[in-house]
Amino acid sequence: MMSLNSLTTSQVLWKQVKWKCKAFSQSFITLIGILIVIQLLGWNGSGSSGGGSNQFSVYIHFYSLDMTFIITCIWAFIQSLLMQGRIQQQDDYSIVTNRIVCNVSNSIVVTIYCFIATLIAIASFYISVLFYRLFSGIDLIRNELLFNPVEVIVTFLLILLVAASGFFIGSAFHFSKMFGIGVIVLFVVLLNLTPLGIANVIKFLFNGGDLLLMLKALVGSILIFGLSTLMLNRNEVTRR
Amino acid sequence: MAIVCTDVYKKYRSHEALKGMSFTIEEDKITGLIGRNGAGKSTLLKILAGHLRSTSGEVLLYGEQPFNNLKVSSNLVFVEDTMSFSPIFKLDEIFQIAKDFYPNWQDDLARKLLEYADISDKNYHHKLSKGQKSTFNLIYGLATRCKITLLDEPMNGMDEAIRSDMYRAILKEYITFPRTIIISSHHLQEIEHLIEDVLLINQGQVTLHAPLEDVKGLLVKLVGNSEMINEWINSSEIYYEKNSQINGEAIVETTSITSLKNELIAKGITIQPISASEVCKYLTSQRKGGIDDVFK
Amino acid sequence: MMPIIMLIISLAFIFLIVITLSKVLGSRVWTAKVNQWIVFGYLALGLISIGILSFSTEAVKKYSIEERKAMYEDETKLWNSLLSGQKNSYYERYLQKEWEIELASDQIRIVPHLATDIKAGVLVEKRDDPNSNVIYAKTYVIPYQYRGNDFTKQASLDYFKFENNNLIVQQVNNQEFTFYEIYPGMQMLDQINDYNIEHDAYYSFFTGRTILFLNVPSHVNIIDESGYVYLVR
Questions:
Q1: ipTM, two decimals
Q2: How many C-beta atoms surround the C-beta of residue A8 within 10 A?
C-alpha cells in the first residue's frame, strides 16, 4: 500500500490544464487565419454614419471591434463545443483523471483560451487599422484613449459567456444526443415563441452599465460551466 | 486483496454482459483473463478501470470503487487497442505528459523499448500501424509502473517476433517492479508461461479462478472405444466426446477417474493430459460434440 | 434578420475554408511550439501596432452626449438670453470674437448674397450714442458638431463681411467633412446602451449656430434686406 501513487486533485487539475492548453492550440491558428482573411476582404468592422444639415454634410467612418468580436464569439462557441465532444474526452483516459477534474480543467482551458482570443481579436483590430493607415494614408483620429481596458474586459467576458453556452451544448450532446437536440430546441423555442425574446435577454444583460454587465457575464459563465460539470459527472466512457 | 468483485452485474439495453461475477485477485499477481469472444472480458476490464459503471454489485480496487475515482485512476493503467492520445502530440511529447502524471514513469526504459521496436518517437500516435500502436500502448502501460495494470488483448496485430519480445518485456518489468497485472486474451497457450492464475469467464460468469498448474491438470482425455468409455463414466461428466470404435475420445474431469485409472488402462483406454488452453476451451464449450455436431 | 443570416452563412463558409486548409497543410507544420510562436508573434505585432498608432494618430476630444444635449438646448437659450438682454456670464463661453465696424455713414445695409440659407442670426441692440458711428459686434458660435465630432474649426463660418457700408451675409457652399475615427470598443454595445439613456434623441442631432450681436448707435439706420436681423431694443 505504501507504493501507491497519490496525486491531489489540484495537482492533477493543473497538470491537465497545462497539457490541454497545448493540445488544442491548433484552434488559435484557425482564429488568426480567419481574422486575417476577414481583414483582407475588408470586412473589418468599419461602419459609417452620415448626416446633413443645412450646408453641412458630415460622414464619420469608424473602426471598431465589432467584426472581430463577432468572429471571435463564433469561434469561441464552436471551439468549446468541440472541446466537449466524445473524442476529445477519451484522450483523457490515457492519463490520470476523473470526471470532475476532466470537466473543470476543460472549463479552465476554455476560459484561458477566451482570454487569449480576446487579446488576439484586439491585436487584430489594431493591426488592421495600422495597415489601413499605411495603405490609404488617411489621418485617423481617436477619442482620447487608443486602448480602453474596460472594453477589453467587457469583450472578454462576453466571449466567455458565448463560449460557456457552446460548452454547455457540447456537454449536452456528449451526455446524450437526444438531450443535446432537446436543449437546442428548447433554446430556440424559448427565444422565439415565448415573450422571453432575444430583445429581453439583451436588455437584461446590458441594462445597468458596464460593471454590472461584467458581473452578470462572469456569474453566468461560472454557472454554466458548473452545470456542465455536474451533468457529466456520472457519464460512462463508451464507444471508443 | 488488490481487486475484489462481489456479485457484479452489467446490463446493457439489449443484453446482460456480466451476470453476477465474484472473484478476488491478490496483490502483485499476474492473472490471465480467458474467455471466448463476447464472454465479457472487455466489459469486466472496463468496469475495473472505471470507464463503465456496474449495474449492481461491488467492485473494490485497494478498497476504493474505481468509477470516477482519482486515487484509483492514478494507480491504474488500462491498455487497450482503442487507447487514444491528443493528436497534436508526438510520441516523444506523450512520454513527457506521462512523466508529469505518473510518478513512477520510466522514461529511459520507455524510450529504449520504443527504439527497439523500431518506432520513431517523432511520429504521431494516430499515424502508427495497428501493430505499432499495440506495441506503443503496451510500452506506455508498462513504463507507467502503475500498481494495477490492465492489458486488454495487448498483442493484437503484433507480428510474431515482436510478440515474444513483448511478453518477455512484461515478465522482466514485472520482476523488477511487481504489480497486479491482468492480461486478457483468447490465446491461453501464448501467455501460459507468463501468468500465475487463470480467471476463466464464460457468458458473463466466472467459470474458474485457479492457479495455472491446477487448470492444467483439471481435465484429461480418454482415448479408446467409446462404448467402453461410456460404460465407466457417467455421461454428465463428459465435456466432449467423439464416438468411434477405435479412436473415440472423451474429455472428463481428472477427479472423476482417479479411482478408475487402472481399470481404464486394463480396458485399453489411454489417458492423455491436455493443455491448459484446451481445458479452457472445453470448459466453455456449448455442445458436447464440438463443431462436428453441426456438420452431422 | 436576413442580412445577419447571410453574414453568418458567409462567415461559416470562410471558417470552412480555413479549417480545411489547416488540415490539408497537415500536422507536420503545426506543432504545439509553432502554434505558440505564431500566437506570440501576432500579439507582439498588435502591440507594435498600438505603439505606432499612438504616435501617428491625433487625439481629438469628442463631446459627450450630455455636452451635446446642453449645446443643443443652448442654441435656443443663448438666443433668448441675448434677446432679453440679460447678462448671463454662462453664455459668454460661446463668444468667438468681438469686433468693431466703423460706419462711414448713418446707415447700414444688411445684404444677403443670393439665396443663402444659413443657420445664423443677427441680433441688433440699439444704444444711445449720438456721437459715434461704431457698431460693436460680438460673434457667438455654438460649436458645430455631429455625433460629438466637432468641425467648427474646419467649417468656414465667415458669414458676415463688412464692405462698403454693407454687411454682407455670405453664401456658404455646401461643406463636407469626413472623420476617420478609431474606436477601441464596440459600436454595437454602445448602440444598445444608448437606447437606455433618456436623451437618445440627441444622439444624432446636429448642433451649431452662429449669432452676430450688434450694438448699434440709435441714430444709425438699418436697412435689412436679408431677413436675418432681429431688432431687440
A1: 0.82
A2: 10
